[in-house]
Design a protein that fits this description.
heterodimer, A: 298 residues, mainly alpha, globular, B: 312 residues, alpha/beta, 4-stranded antiparallel sheet, 33% helix, elongated, disordered C terminus
Chain lengths: 298, 312
Amino acid sequence: MLKQISIIARHELTIAIATRRAVAAAGLYLVTALLGSIGYVKSLSAMQRKGEEMLAAQGADPAQAARAVSRATHEAYQQLVVFLAGTEKPVAASLTDSPILPAFLWGSLAFLPFLVVLTSFDVISGDLQARSLCYSVLRAPRIAILLGKLLAQATLFLGLSVVASLGLLGVAFSLLDTFDVFPAVIGLLRAWLLLLPYGFCYLGLSLFCSATMRQPTVALIAAFAAMMALRILGLFSYVPETGALSPLRLLSWLSPAHYQSGLWEAGVTGPLISVGAYLLFAGVFLTFASRVLAGRDL
Amino acid sequence: MSQGAIRTRGLTKRYGRVTAIADLELSVPRGAVFGLLGPNGAGKSTTFGILCGWLRPDAGEATVLEVSSSELSRLRGKVSAMPQDAGFPPQVSVEQQLCFYGTLGGLERGAALVEARRVLALVELADAANRRGNQLSHGMLKRVALAQALLGSPEVIFLDEPTAGLDPASARHVKDVIAAQAPRATVVVSSHNLAEIQEICTHGAILDHGKRVAAGTIAELTRSGTEVTIELGPNARAPLEALAGRFGADAVTLLDAQTLRLLCPPSTDVASLIGVALRVLLDHETPILGVQRGTSLERAFLDATRRAPSGG
């Protein structure tokens, strides 16, 4: 079956790359990542320069002004990181060593699920609608077809994030005077490893919707609706710990969004719990997808 | 041909409250070209879908080469099917897509490419190998679908309305290709085209209201060994008494004003029955337009489904 999975994955990848929508989504991700990074870096540098100029205009010693602005910028940066990470707990240093990393991770966490759904919503429903799945099921088990398509989409998603990361490094290297490549690469590698299970979880959700619905458009709407519903469920974590509504907080555990802040945390426990939760979500969604596909009429 | 290639037992499928097929029993001998017939809503497509493993039955079982139809992928490459109106992806060429199905069916990549080219040539589409799914006409898509079903020379081939929408020349060619698969392969053809079934099939079953109402060889279904149909000229008066005196009253039936049916007694061969009948008719100067062994599959179909012709 492994050979069949790899044959299906290779073919699906060819089709996905040839699909203009996938290329457009990839381009959108790349352009957004690059423009976001450039904007972020430029505004950071501009603010720093403006601060130094203002202090210098007030007669401050340029060296002292630079130190003061640097200190203020650092404090603002720390607050920004706390805001982006959405956690009061200490954030992993490797994710903040390079100023470009928090923006990248936050942007990826916010937009990657949409990108994953946009590139994968029709991988099964498209075949169901065109009935081309009828050709494959006589040659490979339905589970192999599902796993082959999953592998293709996961590879596409991996490739996208690698390209985006490389683009990000290039931008940072060319725009940031103080850019240090080594910590940025380490931080990107960490962010990338954390994003894999995260994206995998939403890929599982998208494939489940795709296996359930015969119409690709309906599959897309269902995936977005499910994603929104899970995000709303995640908001229950903001319900006060004491009070009549406090039991509702438990519902947020059922949402992938609940584990998002754990990815930022320093140490091993927080990120591990989040990674484990995302892999569990992915496993549950894929099990549902497999059951639906195995039992459904084509 | 003695061992069954396909068998169903107590096969039942419901869509909500509607029972599409109920307790269906079918047996298709190895090497047969088997026609699956039935009026609209008879359960033909449902039966076909279950046999191909696309639909899940609610009860009973269907086996192909002694493997449950829900696990046909276990036979990898030994069973293929051509669904009605299934598409091919517009992103890759037809040759690439067939090559993919070939490798998925167990062929090595090089062999799959050779095989893809062979089957495309077989359906006279060698020139269209580099075209994509969305660059083909309906008829071409149909032939690519047939080529897909012939990949790797499978032992069992399911074809749903294989000539629907094809021009006469292409339909003729497709029928020849299908007929050439037997007896090496068992072929199941689902079709509304009774003349086509009669022409290319060796066996068949007629379904109605989700049940099998007739099954057997095409000769048995059309009663070609036991019955003779004679078409008389316009305004002819059939010499019924003379014929009844020769063959017995029960053996002679006037189906309509111009069609006479004679049943062949068990000990008589059809050729001598035709000879004697023609002699009687000629003696009575009855004009004869045609003689047919048995009846047409259309009439057998209408008899089996107890429906009158809708005119014409």
